[in-house]
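Q: My labmate handed me this sequence with no annotations at all. I'd like to see what the chain might look like in three dimensions before we decide whether it's worth expressing. Could you predict it?
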Amino acid sequence: MLDHVNVVVTDMDRSVAFYASVLGLAPVMDRLLSGDWFEHVTGIASARARCVILDAPGGGCRIELLQFTAPGGRADAPPPAARPSSIGLRHLAIRVADLDARLAALKALCGQEAAVAEVPADIVRGGKRMCYVRDPDGAIVELCEYGAERPEFR
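A: Here is what I predict for the chain of 154 residues:
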């Protein structure tokens, strides 16, 4: 079972606003991570990071936002903007109940617009509408709305 997805951010407040206001996720934890255990797991001496965990309505996979704050633990320079076809973990997909409402919130908060695509019925029975957007640090986020409670893939 998938537990959480981690996203390293440069501005926690801006990122929380995006993931909460635009995507409808709710913060369930906001605290500083530091100490021997955190240095050990990250491999970064003196690592400290603000950690915000966001949960989806009704539960499911959580999103962990980390903003590194300590010397030696600050976020590295962002890599060049990835394309949807770049190798590696490429995007985070979030199911929403009302895609149009989420896109309106995205435009109001970030000034960002997205083109919605209808996935053909021979791929997803029951229908799927989706689009790619970018979070404040440029990570690709897929917003998807299914026409059926539990979509069937063909």
